[in-house]
């Protein structure tokens, strides 16, 4: 069994196409999407249509929920751009995605934690806004209601990570396909340096043992940066080109 895990595409069609091509080349048996599909000043509508054609099992991310629930003045500028690019039917389809999925082999897929799409599962936030790996007691509390899960897949932080959690539960964040750092948040400029690569993971089970490949791909991030500039979002242009915001 080989399962590709993608998350946090954020409307970056160029990055998504590179990841999908790599998944095909590696011969994965299936792909699961952990949400935050379109919100960005890049290609929200085109990304939605590409994902719709694939019909992947997909978890609803917080931005997929907010794009339908929030009034305009509560959305980030990227959220408002995506809202205006999508039809009402497309926005409703994103909102209708399930908050979690239970797959074969004891795999639980969620966006943030199993119970909250706005909390990072594998990270804690310090007072200055930086992310640090979650302490063991914090992670145990966040997974306390999922004692039978053997693998938990999560996204949201855009930080690729793999840990062996409580009860030998494997917890995997595949990283972000198309958005190394979300440029609209006030603390974006204080986050650590990242890279512009398109990230995902492949989860493989062989003889009852899980193996994980954490992948970081080059793609045409200059095209993604140019798209952000064309839509008057220079901070997004820098984020997708370099992996950080000044």
Task: Write a structural description.
The protein has 8 helices and 11 strands. The mean pLDDT is 96. The strands form 3 sheets. A 5-stranded mixed sheet has the order 3-4-7-9-8, with no helix packed on it. Helix 3 (62-69) packs across helix 4 and helix 3 (62-69) packs across helix 5 (88-95). With 246 residues, it is α/β, with parallel strands linked by helices. It has one domain (2-242): Metallo-dependent phosphatases (Purple Acid Phosphatase, chain A, domain 2, 4-Layer Sandwich). The longest helix is centred in the N-terminal third of the chain and has 14 residues, at 13-26. It has helices at residues 13-26, 44-54, 62-69, 77-85, 88-95, 136-142, 221-230, 234-242, and strands spanning 2-6, 30-33, 100-103, 107-110, 123-125, 131-133, 151-153, 161-164, 170-173, 198-206, 209-217.
Show the helix and strand layout.
Elements: E1 2-6, H1 13-26, E2 30-33, H2 44-54, H3 62-69, H4 77-85, H5 88-95, E3 100-103, E4 107-110, E5 123-125, E6 131-133, H6 136-142, E7 151-153, E8 161-164, E9 170-173, E10 198-206, E11 209-217, H7 221-230, H8 234-242
Parallel strand pairs: 1-2, 4-7, 7-9
Antiparallel strand pairs: 1-10, 3-4, 5-6, 8-9, 10-11
Helix pairs in contact: 3-4, 3-5, 7-8
Q: How many β strands by DSSP? A: 11
Tally of individual domains: 1
- CATH topological fold name: Purple Acid Phosphatase, chain A, domain 2
State the share of residues found in helices, binned by percent: 25-40%
Per CATH, the architecture is 4-Layer Sandwich
State the CATH class.
Alpha Beta
Give the oligomeric state. single chain
Largest sheet: 5 strands, mixed
Query: Radius of gyration, rounded?
Result: 17 Å
Record the strand order, biggest sheet: 3-4-7-9-8
């Amino acid at each position: 069994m080989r399962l590709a895990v993608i998350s946090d595409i954020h409307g970056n069609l160029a990055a998504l196409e590179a990841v999908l091509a790599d998944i095909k080349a590696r011969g994965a048996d299936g792909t699961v999407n952990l949400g935050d599909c379109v919100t960005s000043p890049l290609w929200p509508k085109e990304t939605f249509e590409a994902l719709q054609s694939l019909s992947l099992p997909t978890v609803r991310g917080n931005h997929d929920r907010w794009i339908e629930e929030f009034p305009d003045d509560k959305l980030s500028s990227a959220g408002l751009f995506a809202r205006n690019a999508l039809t009402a039917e497309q926005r409703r389809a994103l909102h209708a995605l399930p908050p979690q999925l239970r797959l074969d082999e004891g795999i639980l897929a969620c966006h943030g934690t199993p119970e909250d799409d706005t909390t990072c599962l594998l990270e804690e936030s310090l007072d200055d806004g930086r992310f640090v790996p979650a302490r063991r007691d914090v992670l145990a509390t966040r997974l306390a209601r999922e004692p039978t899960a053997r693998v938990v897949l999560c996204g949201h932080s855009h930080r690729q990570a793999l840990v062996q959690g409580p009860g030998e539960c494997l917890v995997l964040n595949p990283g972000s396909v198309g958005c190394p750092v979300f440029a609209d948040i006030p603390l974006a400029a204080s986050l650590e340096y990242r890279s512009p690569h398109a990230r995902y993971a492949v989860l493989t089970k062989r003889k009852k043992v899980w193996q994980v490949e954490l992948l970081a791909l080059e793609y045409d991030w200059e095209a993604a940066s140019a798209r952000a500039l064309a839509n008057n979002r220079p901070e997004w242009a820098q984020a997708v080109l370099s992996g950080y915001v000044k």
